[in-house]
């Protein structure tokens, strides 16, 4: 048993670019929400309070001001700048703290936030132990070959806690759905797509309505239920099947993003799914991708010839 634990500690390494890419997507999700929405969309009087932002939690970054719209805008742009630094991958040990603070603050102080903000808040907090023990300059760098055992235990405990939390998230989603008649009889998606708030854009609805008003509507409804149940079971499924589940889950959430406009929510969930279903040791080879793109670009440029009349011609060889 001691030998197995020793081998596990030797091979355990949460500080890979898998978690790095997940952090980038998670930060980008909140960044885009703040960037493309005026402060008035999120910070305004509500049924709970006439004053804004909501400062029931005094630790919010948005409560460092005197309820002034101009100062709110300044804080918003400071948050966007910090989230940009987080997404770049620089100094995760320090930026991880600010990332968690901003997502926590936004979720608690804003109104009309969606599930994406909740996902970003919960998982930026769960990732904190990994970021605090990450001494790299960039989270894109190769993982350190040697680290102390305490840091490894802290980081891997955070990683496993994240996986359990994702499974719980989808478990709650499945249980909530099967308790509703519309999900059982296969018509839930039909109601969702026609919702004025969350449904399809009218033009998109006109295109797909002939298909979605047929019995085939049960396919996306029950398909969502089945896939979410598989995502729950992925907590204990063999790693060799993870990539197939990841592809299917990403496809499902991208459909939601495009059809329902849930872009920031989709980014946050994909970030979490990467940590859930991409083995940490299977790092991304970004250098190879970069070299391939540059190589193909230069090859294409070399085939472009400038003619005497000033026109360009592309030569196939």
Structural notes for this entry:
The chain is mostly helical and 317 residues long. The protein has a domain at 2-167. The protein is 64% helix and 2% strand. It contains 14 helices and 2 strands; from the N terminus they run ααααααααααααααββ. It has helices spanning 2-11, 17-35, 69-88, 92-109, 115-126, 128-132, 149-178, 181-184, 188-193, 202-212, 218-233, 242-260, 263-277, 286-302; strands spanning 304-306, 312-314. Strands 1-2 form a two-stranded antiparallel sheet. Strand 1 and strand 2 (312-314) form a beta hairpin. Helix 2 runs antiparallel to helix 5 and helix 5 packs parallel to helix 13. The longest helix has 30 residues, at 149-178. The radius of gyration is 23 Å and the shape is globular. It starts with a helix and ends with a strand. The chain crosses the membrane at residues 20-37, 72-90, 216-237, 244-277. Its main location: membrane.
Short description:
This protein is mostly helical and about 325 residues long. The protein contains 14 helices and two strands, in the order ααααααααααααααββ. Strand 1 and strand 2 form a beta hairpin.
Detail the topology: elements first, then pairings:
Elements: H1 2-11, H2 17-35, H3 69-88, H4 92-109, H5 115-126, H6 128-132, H7 149-178, H8 181-184, H9 188-193, H10 202-212, H11 218-233, H12 242-260, H13 263-277, H14 286-302, E1 304-306, E2 312-314
Helix pairs in contact: 2-3, 2-5, 2-13, 3-4, 4-5, 5-13, 7-11, 7-13, 11-12, 12-13
């Amino acid at each position: 048993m001691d030998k197995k634990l020793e081998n596990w500690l030797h091979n355990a390494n949460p500080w890979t670019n898998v978690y790095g890419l997940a952090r980038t997507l998670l930060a980008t999700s909140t960044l885009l929400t703040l960037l493309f929405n005026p402060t008035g969309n999120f910070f305004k009087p509500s049924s709970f309070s006439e004053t804004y932002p909501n400062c029931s939690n005094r630790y919010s970054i948005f409560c460092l001001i005197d309820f002034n719209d101009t100062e709110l805008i300044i804080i918003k742009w400071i948050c966007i700048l910090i989230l940009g630094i987080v997404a770049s991958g620089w100094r995760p040990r320090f930026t991880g703290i600010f990332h968690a603070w901003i997502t926590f603050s936004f979720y608690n102080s804003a109104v009309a936030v969606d599930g994406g903000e909740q996902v970003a808040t919960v998982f930026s907090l769960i990732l904190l132990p990994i970021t605090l023990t990450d001494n790299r300059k960039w989270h894109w760098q190769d993982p350190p070959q040697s680290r102390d055992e305490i840091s490894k235990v802290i980081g891997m405990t955070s990683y496993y806690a994240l996986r359990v939390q994702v499974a719980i998230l989808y478990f709650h989603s499945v249980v909530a759905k099967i308790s509703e008649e519309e999900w059982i009889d296969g018509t839930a998606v039909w109601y969702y797509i026609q919702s004025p708030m969350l449904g399809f854009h009218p033009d998109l609805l006109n295109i797909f309505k002939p298909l979605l008003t047929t019995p085939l509507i049960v396919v996306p409804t029950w398909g969502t239920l089945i896939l979410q149940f598989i995502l729950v079971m992925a907590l204990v499924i063999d790693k060799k099947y993870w990539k197939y589940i990841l592809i299917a889950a990403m496809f499902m959430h991208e459909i939601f993003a495009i059809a329902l406009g849930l872009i920031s929510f989709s980014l946050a969930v994909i970030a979490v799914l990467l940590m859930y279903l991409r083995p940490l040791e299977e790092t991304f080879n970004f250098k190879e991708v970069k070299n391939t793109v540059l190589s193909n670009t230069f090859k294409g440029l070399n085939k472009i010839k400038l003619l005497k009349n000033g026109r360009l011609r592309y030569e196939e060889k």
